[in-house]
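fwd from M.: "can u put these together and see what the complex looks like"

so here's what she sent:
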Amino acid sequence: MQFMLLFSRQGKLRLQKWYVPLSDKERKKISRDLVQTILARKPKMCSFLEWRDLKIVYKRYASLYFCCAVEDQDNELITLEIIHRYVELLDKYFGSVCELDIIFNFEKAYFILDEFLLGGEAQETSKKNVLKAIEQADLLQEAIEQADLLQEVRLLTDP
Amino acid sequence: MALKIVKGSIDRMFDKNLQDLVRGIRNHKEDEAKYISTCIDEIKQELKQDNIAVKANAVCKLTYLQMLGYDVSWAAFNIVEVMSSSKFTYKRIGYLAASQCFHESTDVIMLTTNQIRKDLSSPNQYDTGVALTGLSCFVTPDLARDLANDIMTLMSHTKPYIRKKAVLIMYKVFLKYPESLRPAFPRLKEKLEDPDPGVQSAAVNVICELARRNPKNYLSLAPLFFKLMTSSTNNWVLIKIIKLFGALTPLEPRLGKKLIEPLTNLIHSTSAMSLLYECVNTVIAVLISLSSGMPNHSASIQVSFSRHAHTFSLKYLGLLAMSKILKTHPKSVQSHKDLILQCLDDKDESIRLRALDLLYGMVSKKNLMEIVKKLMLHVDKAEGTTYRDELLTKIIDICSQSNYQYITNFEWYISILVELTRLEGTRHGHLIASQMLDVAIRVKAIRAFAVAQMATLLDNAHLLTGNTQRNGICEVLYAAAWICGEFSEHLEEPMVTLEAMLRPKVATLPGHIQAVYVQNAAKLFATVLRGHEGVPADSMVAQETSQLLIDRLPLFVQSSNLEVQERASCILQLVKYIQKLQQKDVEVAEEVTALFAGELNPVAPKAQKKVPVPEGLDLDVWINEPPSGSESEDEGRKSKGKAVFAKEESRHTKPRYTEVDEKELAKRREVRKAEQANNPFYIKASPSSQKVYQDGVGVEHIPVVQIDLSVPLKVPGMPMSDQYVKLEEERRERNKADKKKKKDKKKREKGEKGRRRRGDSGPESEEDITPAHMVDIVTEEMPENALPSDDDDKDPNDPHKSICWAPCVNTAGYGVDQPPLYLSPHPSLSLAPHLQVCDIQGNLQDGSQVVVSVIFENKCDSFIKSMEFNVLDSLNSKLQRPDGAGPHDGLIVPFQLPPGISNEARFIFSVQNIVMPQKLKGTLTFIVKTDDSSTHEKLDFKLHFTCTSYLITTPCYSDAYSKLLESGDLKGCSLKLEGVNQPFHHLLARICFHHHFSVVERIDSCASMYSRSIQGHHMCLLVKTADQTVSIDAKCDEPGLLGNVLDEIKLTFSQC
């Protein structure tokens, strides 16, 4: 996979992940082009389109479009499944996810994606394992934050 | 100190966190840019603080702003600071920001190497994980080089969580730093059998991706993958493995046979559409690689796939897969015609375009009309001109493909073209026009019909030109006017058409069309005169016609278009003159007709090239010697000066210039060629020179069958192609009935035998459809005496083609099936204990180069590496080495060989003289690596370049062949072989196969054969056989080469 974009029906980018090195300018141009192309398509059209030398696979979930670019030989259907799997993961993590969850917790959405895909390849095919890894990392983060807090409280109360 | 930390955390409470920022942006919809610029200022302040928590918060906000499209590259160093925090919370943010914002040209990446290395070896697996994830996004060649070893170690980490990530990221590392592949590969291979399924699937992923780029090196892993495929139940892994096999099968057809069964099983058992799709794709690849094909399988796959295809938006993929199948198994796709036609109704344009592509490939004589009819319906319905234009071009492509192969009724086709002219706003008027012209010129039988249709078009020209939007379509009037004029003898009412062509409205058409109108009005005029002369009552009509022209032409004489103006004034004067004669009752019709006598015939695009050079004409020789600049002045002065006294003297100087030596001539020729190449006015052979006017002579011998038409020619008004479809169907029915009658008759006659014949009433086969009228497409003209080698595409010496030739090193260029050039007909290379160079095949590139393919096979149990191939050059043949290499340096073989593996390498040799066979000595040095030691080994071999290997199979026609023999340039030689007791055709096949000849003609036990060397020597053989004795009379323009080839032929027969 070359990149993944999430954007809203209004064309606002909600998440972007690039697995190929491109400059900011190119990235911006590509996402602008694609968002326009996809938003122009009607609901009953197929989920695949050929774009430059890539294949674009996209799917709309509620108000969000999920869009991936894969190479010519890649399997479009498994890419659709990757998108679906990611949506399921978000759903499990946030508990019936909505666009706002992703906007306000965009770093979490990235962490989940990073546990699921690495370098554009599916890294973990078990949903359970992905969520477990995220939970543990979150626990670790909370433990650190709590320790920090305790330290500050100690400093305050015990000058 | 303590106070400072506390103060920091209190400050933090007043800072915006990410949520606040997002909320703020949402609340400032009107002045978003302004709000964000204040936020960025705040962030800049926050980044200046020492507190890492504040910094991390700022970086997190920046990452969000980066996504919104703001430039945050200025904060790259702060991101690195956050990355290097010891606390996971901040490190996580830091790496996320880095993976989103860094790219290869970010210079701070250099500073991160050590930090990343530290994180990779962190005792906390989440630190390591975060570093690996981040690295996968911003790894640079430098980072890959420096960290490759650390990541490789992680591939054997105790935790599967880390192993999995490390394996996956290795792929990125390989891409950036390919040298790391070799040392890491064994470990990667190990991971294919990792106990953890996640790690295993990661390894499969990486190897599949690698193999897609270079499948050859991964053939040895096929058994392992085969095992995985049959045992794994993980669809994600299966898809990758099946994709890998799809890449491997073209290299190893045996693999394909083995795969078919498990794949078909999967297809029938799986419920996952993605897996099914992958299986189908690979099966298609397998079927393509197995040239024999297995139609049953493909049919079953087809059915299973198309069953799903219309349930979902999988249509698109189904069509894609079908187009792949179509190339090899057109029959199995044709049965899904209806399904594909349905797809034309789809809302999605990409699906419709795919379906159109498919239709192009699946038309036959039988279904063409039906398919085009459906397409015409779509043309009417289609919204948007782009898609409609696409439909239009497709209809024309479909009908005209392979020289109108599938059209059985050209009347129908003409009416389709006429219907297409009614399209609003198409850009393809020109295309329709050229089709009309092509059909009218090349299909003689249709001319009368075409002329009638075109006359109607001209009469209704206002329909086409009325709307300014429809400009594109008026091009068809060009064709219509020309056809009506050129074939005016078929016009029923030439007067009416002539009047239509001279309407004032014509003056609004583009210039080039008006010009054609004017010219063809003159042709029509001639026809009218001819029709009405001699009958006194009609002479009035003829005079009226002249008057009409004289009245209307002045409009065109005033045209601003030069061409129109010139033609109109010419013709006007002519008509005025004719009118004068008419008034004196002089018969002029014959003379006027003579102006346009002769018929136009299509000329093949290659015709120009085929004109043989008349004997004794050397185009490279000066006709008049051009005196060189300075000398001519000199002479001029001289002759001026001396002319008074003696003329002879000046003449005397002339012969001096003709004595230019060969070298000088060659030089001048080069200069002239270069000049011509750069001169835009020098006409080179180009397709545009296809059509030329010709004398009436030479037309008669074109085989055109005169026909009697079974269909009424005159259809009132604009024709509907549907009528022709119906008529055609009726005709076919009739034909079929006739045939059946005949067969029934036969059946009765044959009595008993007839009973075995059933199937008569079965579906009509393609062959049963006879064309409506025996329409014979006029073949494109070739000049008389053209050299009859029809496939000059194959001519490797053609300078125009050599450009395409050069890069095609492997099998012969652009699809021409050329047998490999055996440099050594029998493997003459000695066997080494470890290595067998088992096959040498050569392929020629140009007149002086020979390509030798060598297959290296490792027959021992150890690993072989560092192979170096070297040949001792002779004066005549040299191994081509890269620039800068010395003449004795070896070439490094670009691969290594694990045990039991073979691989192929190609070497290019330049050869100067091809008259003599050559033997080159060479050595191959290599290192054999066993578990505990490695030894340096050497293998000597000989390469045998026979003279046969310089011959190319070239077809030749008998008349060119006899011309060649008559020319007397060839020297003869003969050979007798005794005791050959093979059938004659075996013998010929043997010569063809081993010595690259082709049979020109064979009569009983006598055959003539031909071949050509890479440097263009002709070689002709006359082979006769009688009582086990074969005599070969040979002729060639190079006796030395001939002698050697004959010796080699003798050797071939002595060995069998």
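replying to her w this: DSSP finds 44 helices and 14 strands in chain B.
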